Amino acid sequence: MMCAAVPRVLEEDEQGWLFAETIEKLDDTLLKMKWKSNVPGSNAPERVIIGAIADMGNMGYDVSEAEKLIDEGLSCYDKNDMPGLNRVTWRIWNALNNAPKIEGHEYFSYEVYDSFEKYKRTVDTKLKFDEPDKYGKDFSERTYYGWVAQIVGGAIGTAIEGYVTEQIEKAFGNVDGYVREPNTYNDDITYEIAFLIAASRKGKNVTSADIAEEWAALVPFGWSAEEWALKNIKSGIYPPESGYMNNPYREWIGAQMRGAVCGMVAPGNPVLAADYAFRDGVVSHHNNGVLGEIFNAVMVSLAYVKKDVREILELAIDKYLPHDSEYYSVVKFALDRCKEYGSWKQAWEKAREKYKKYNWVHAYPNAASEVISLWYGNGDFDYTMNISSMIGYDVDCNAAQIATVLGIIGKERTVSERWTAPIGDKLKTYLRQYKEISIKKLAEYTVDISKKM
User: Fold this and answer.
1) What is the pLDDT of residue 185?
2) What's the pLDDT at 15?
3) Can you give the pTM of this predicted structure?
4) Are 254 and 289 contacting, i.e. CB atoms less than 8 angstroms apart?
5) Is residue 353 within a helix (H) or strand (E), and if so which, with residue range?
6) Helix (H) or strand (E) holding 428
7) What is the DSSP secondary structure assignment for residue 8, as one 8-state letter?
8) Cis omega (within 30 of 0) for bond into 248
9) Is residue 196 very low, low, confident or very high in pLDDT (cuts 50, 70, 90)?
10) Can you tell me the distance from the alpha carbon of 151 to that of 301, in angstroms, rounded to the nearest whole number?
11) Are strands 392-393 and 163-164 parallel, antiparallel or unpaired?
12) Residue pLDDT, tens place only, 22-79
């Protein structure tokens, strides 16, 4: 190519330097978003770089050096000092990547689950259920209504995620429906579809690397844990390293929010659902972050063979989560409060106070929200969505996952037309080549993959 190239004198507008200004603007925008941004869909304010510092501290690391830089970073942001903001931001990441462990920190008193084999040794693998007929009409209908309910739950929550109970109540009163015209555009289902595409290629032998490559191929942009995972993958760092290397968000909700699809492809087989969830989870998360995905995958898998949501909750927590994990301590705490108090507000007040040091996108407070919403909702879709909405935090992720359980159990009886009519059959995503998908076809695709898996 070089030998064939013929030189010529270029006009100024042909010289190719105009791209530099475009890249600078994009780079500055993405950097500033770390310091202050608003959640798409709800406009809730967030500062994810401070969330990163907090959660490295929650995981038992001394983040005092990073904390010292917060005020300088905020000052640079306010002055629009981009060189200064760059310098302080990269110093913070460096401080986090080199933060020493705090000896005796509570986090290290719990077991770390960094392999599926280790997980499997600690849970009940002897329980057996009659797997549904994957070729029958009932299974197809359950999968379809699972997807419908999940998409509705996501649409309910997208408008109000990132807020707390008091502010939601002030703005909207008692939320028992959509607070605005719903849409299906969010990032949660994006990653579930990428999982399905990887599974369609490899079947039951799909690996974490297969899933990671679909992410890199199809997902143009990620946030928090998924952003770092994509950076790692595109640098040739594959799972499980992609999930924890340089990733302070590795125990946030990003894996927990996509567990449902793993349960759909392993109906009535919670251990297999957990296996797929582990393979998917380590692409972007680690330890408790991955256990969050397993939790939801197991509940969805059980929904095909159990009809009582409280029984599903108790089975998932008691039989399929390692009791020496910190994640188990969170959902068990929430379940115990459900049994102790007569109202969801009392149970949530206790959970919110106990987990107040965690970012609103972290897996823990949102796992507690799922437990409380399912327990008090007790199979009633409308009331379960009402509770999840009024709790707040990462509502779209929480509502979507638990809604899938209810959709599979109740099928067409679960989700009334007032929820489904505004959505129709269209799911919108930002995946390359999959900008708009038929929900019916997505369900059929899931059923076909489940047969392979």
Assistant:
1) 84
2) 81
3) 0.96
4) yes
5) helix 344-354
6) strand 426-431
7) -
8) no
9) very high
10) 18
11) antiparallel
12) 999 999 999 999 999 999 999 999 999 999 999 999 999 999 999 999 999 999 999 9
Cβ neighbours of residue 344 under 8 Å, at least 6 residues apart? 338, 372, 373, 375, 376, 387, 391
- DSSP secondary structure string for all residues of 63-120: -HHHHTTHHHHHHHHHHT-HHHHHHHHHHHHHHHHTPPB-TT-GGGGSPP--SHHHHH
Q: Locate all alpha helices (DSSP H) within 265-343, ordered by sequence.
A: 270-281, 288-303, 309-320, 326-340
- Phi then psi for residue 47, to 5 deg, are -130, 90
Give the model's pLDDT for residue 386. Answer: 98
Half-sphere exposure of 247 (CA within 13 A, CB side): 32
Parallel/antiparallel/unpaired status of strands 163-164 and 426-431:
unpaired
For the stretch 67-102, pLDDT in tens is: 999 999 999 999 999 999 999 999 999 999 999 999
Look at residues 349, 380, 324 and name the one whose alpha carbon lies nearest to residue 166.
349
The CB density around residue 128, as the number of other CB atoms within 10 Å, is: 9
Q: Quick one: residue 196, left, alpha or beta (phi over 0 = left, psi -120 to 50 = alpha)?
A: alpha
The predicted model gives 103-121 an average pLDDT of: 97
Question: Which tokens in the block code for residue 192?
Answer: 């579930």
Task: Report d(CA 89, CA 79) in Å as an integer.
Answer: 15
